Hints:
Layout (H helix, E strand, L loop, with lengths): L21 H10 L15 H15 L2 E6 L12 E7 L6 E7 L2 E4 L17 E7 L2 H8 L2
Antiparallel strand pairs: 1-5, 2-3, 2-5, 3-4
Amino acid sequence: MIPVAQTRSGGPDAPREEAGNCYAACVASILELALEDVPDVAPNDNGEDGWNEAWGGWFRERGLTTYNLVRGEGDDRPFEGYTIGTVPSRNGPYEHAVVCRDGEVVWDPNPANAEKPYDSSEATSWEVFALLDASELVKRRGR
Length: 143
């Protein structure tokens, strides 16, 4: 994981050029890519279907998919590995994405939040990455 900062922090109703890109920064961080190498999809681009279609296609092209998981009440088991946690934004009544590892917040892409980091207990859901074909990983590693 390499920390990649978001470059916009407007809410979902902000003009396109101001709409937050925290999710893109989290994906770039986890996959160790530059922000310019992941889709620039704003939350209000063609509604939720447009968002899911753009990201879903991009992940599939790379042999990945994601699942959004909501932890049940009283379930405190951490999700293993890197995930994207959803937390309440400190900038308005909407959601914010952070990078988690083994259930703990390890990177907040919004530099404005550096003074008050999120706690993992604030996460309401986690986006978990999965391989579409695990055998491809084994083949690439030559085993």
